[in-house]
From TrEMBL:
It comes from the Bacteria. This is SAM-dependent methyltransferase. Keywords: Methyltransferase, S-adenosyl-L-methionine, Transferase. InterPro entries: Methyltransf_11, SAM-dependent_MTases_sf. It holds the Pfam family Methyltransf_11. It comes from Streptosporangium sandarakinum. One of its GO terms (molecular function) is S-adenosylmethionine-dependent methyltransferase activity. Residues 49-141 form the Methyltransferase type domain. GO terms for biological process: methylation.
Length: 270
């Protein structure tokens, strides 16, 4: 299934993205992404290129933390919203052809583009572009949706009882290609074990994987935990303690994979 620009614009034109990570159980993904990035990004005021950054949900807090943030996104509505955020520059752009010079930023974030690049060659191209744009020693971080997420989510929400939802979720589990019934979310779902290979083929070996939500996103009372600051702290600490356990990576709805562009030493090693 090809994820066309028309499909993306139709989906994101519904203006769902701005609130997805700001309310409800989506806050777990938001806070865990923030937690991992704050531990792996170079210190502010490093220059961060937020590719496919949507309406600026992450760009906003990065700018508040003191980073020099530029956001690129293919959706005009997203760019319009993000450009109104303090400290955030925003413009239209495609992850496969970044409009920035070589080695010009300290970190590149791909927190959405790999969801929508159905062909492996396009995903590797986007990662290679991120590597090109980042300085030696700089960070490339990319989010992916896990292969079994649709089955987990439809059971969680109760929609698994509907035949079309069940069929769509199992189709995504088989080959990674996802298109929600009714023309909804068009995406590619990764097997966690295929992500490091895509990074390596883009010139980014030794990538580290972080399961964002663990099994906690499937808990019926997770929003109660997120609403209470002390319980939220405990929940985030619990997931941090097992975030890279290989046997648990695929349980998370999302994976965050982080690598550094290697620094070439005198004899071409590194």
């Amino acid at each position: 299934m090809a994820v066309t620009r028309e499909l993306l614009l139709a989906y994101y034109g519904q203006d769902r993205e701005d609130g997805r990570l700001r309310a409800g159980h989506g806050r777990l993904e938001f806070w865990r992404t923030q937690d991992v990035l704050r531990r792996t990004l170079p210190p502010a005021p490093a220059r961060v290129l937020d590719v496919g950054g949507g309406t600026g949900v992450h760009a906003e807090w990065l700018a508040a933390d003191g980073y020099d943030v530029e956001l690129l996104d293919p959706v005009p509505l997203h760019v319009e919203r993000a450009s109104k955020l303090a400290g955030v520059a925003a413009r239209l752009g495609d992850a496969r052809e970044l409009p920035v010079p070589d080695a010009s930023v300290d970190a590149v974030l791909l927190l959405g583009p790999l969801y929508h690049l159905a062909e492996r060659a396009d995903r590797v191209r986007a990662l290679a572009e991120a590597r090109r744009a980042v300085r030696p020693g700089g960070v490339v971080a990319a989010a992916t949706i896990n292969r079994h997420a649709a089955v987990h989510d439809t059971v969680r929400t109760g929609s698994y009882v509907e035949e079309r939802q069940r069929e769509t979720a199992h189709a995504a589990m088989r080959d990674g290609h996802m298109l929600s019934p009714g023309g909804g979310f068009p995406a590619y779902f990764h097997d966690p074990d295929e992500v490091p290979g895509e990074f390596a083929d883009a010139g980014l070996p030794n990538a580290e994987r972080y399961g964002l939500e663990g099994a906690f996103w499937l808990y019926g009372d997770v929003e109660d935990w997120l609403d209470d600051p002390e319980r939220r702290r405990l929940l985030l600490d619990a997931q941090r303690s097992m975030e890279s356990a290989p046997s648990l990576l695929g349980v998370s709805g999302h994976l965050l994979t982080v690598a550094r562009r290697q620094v070439r030493h005198e004899y071409g090693q590194g």
